[in-house]
Amino acid sequence: MDKILIVDDNPSVCQALTILLELYDYQVVAVGSPKEALPIIMYQRISLVILDMNFTQDTTSGEEGKAAFYQIRDLQPDLPVILLTAWTDLTTAIELVKNGAADYLAKPWDDERLLVTINNLIELNDVQRKSQVLTQQQRERDQHNKSANLCGLIFASTAMQRLVDMTIQVAKSHVNVLITGPNGAGKEKIAEILHENSPRADKPLIKVNVGALPVELIEAELFGAEAGAYTGANKKRIGRFEAADGGTLLLDEIGNLSLSGQMKLLRVLQTGEFERLGSNQTLTVDVRVISATNADLAGAIANNTFREDLFYRLNVIQLELLPLNQRKDDIEPLIEYFTQSEKVIPEATRQALQLHDWPGNVRELENACQRANLLSKSTEWQAEDFGLTPIDLASYEQIKPAEHLTKARVEQAINDHQWVISRAAKSLGLSRQALYRRMEKFGITK
């Protein structure tokens, strides 16, 4: 609840303002002099000050209010201050507004105007404060990421920034990581960032696509095999675990591993020990395992096709990579990267790119960019260049707010803008009231 400080030596004014503001759910503190007000500003969280300009009987110069205003500014430079004036000459009030006062109101004030002014000032101050915090966080992230190896990852969305921050933080440990997300979203790139920013960066990163191997060869691929261990094994084969010793092993599409392979993998994760197929010799390795999957492993556990104990061994930390249609701020920088072109994206093309669902994610976008490079004949990118249907902007503006907003999209916008509803609404093309209605409809609460 926002707390408002009233500074006025007239008890009737303080009482009237207190009753009015409390009716609108503001918390109110009222004092009779600047001397009483300054400690409150120092030690309490005040959202706004309503400051009278005169405190000595028969004084109308405004000098007392002026001095109090500058004392408040020294303590809290960004704290909104509304001046209350009760005389005809407004020169001093205007001077203070020029020097940072939020507004001035004449006594007797208009309740409606006062409430609107207070609401707007508090909301604006909240936005500015959060923006300052985010800017500082961004500076810290930029400095942090500047020394990190992002392996050429291209992104602009808040969702990807959060994932990258967490990835770099997790990279410094030796724990196993499970990367989840749809095909083509970039799970392998996240695995590369994990490895390159880890203490194992000077050791090998070995990748194996479990889903691309025949079931009968998966165990030999992972653990190796002696000559004659199976048909066609004419010589000893070194497995991926041995090859990754000291480094990192990426197991892509881990959900396709057979139950017998899962049992052996579990043993390696628990003890670091395994045997090659056809051998009784126990080998020991030190490997960090990164797993990736687009499968529903919880469902596989329920269906007894994936071991629950293995899942918890792999999933010490989970990094969830969102599909491209939930981080659409990444689309344009990715297009610029894939096409290596500075062609302009006109609004109709931009809307077509935003409306497309991108079921193939970044991989589909990369293919679309290759197509565009080959087929584009214009100085600007057209929707057809990417294999998309052109958008009629006039028609789109009429249907945009109501037709294309899912609960996930609304939640993403709200989270991306740190629950600043006015900004989230603007990004969705809605009014604040319309966004509140959709939040109520979808049951979205903070």
Automatic annotation (TrEMBL):
Which domain of life does the UniProt lineage start with?
Bacteria
Q: InterPro entries, alphabetically?
A: AAA+_ATPase, AAA_lid_NorR, CheY-like_superfamily, Homeodomain-like_sf, HTH_Fis, P-loop_NTPase, Sig_transdc_resp-reg_receiver, Sigma_54_int
Response regulatory domain sequence ranges: 3-122
Cited CDD domains = AAA, REC
Q: Which residues form the Sigma-54 factor interaction domain?
A: 153-374
Annotated keywords: ATP-binding, DNA-binding, Nucleotide-binding, Phosphoprotein, Transcription, Transcription regulation
Q: Where are the transmembrane segments?
A: none
Q: What is the lineage of its organism?
A: Bacteria, Pseudomonadati, Pseudomonadota, Gammaproteobacteria, Alteromonadales
Asked if the keyword Lyase belongs to this entry, the reply reads no
Q: Which residues carry this modification: 4-aspartylphosphate?
A: D52
Protein name as catalogued: DNA-binding NtrC family response regulator
Query: What GO molecular function annotation could you give as one example from this UniProt entry?
Result: ATP binding
The Gene Ontology biological process annotation of the record reads: phosphorelay signal transduction system; regulation of DNA-templated transcription
Coiled coil (residue ranges): none
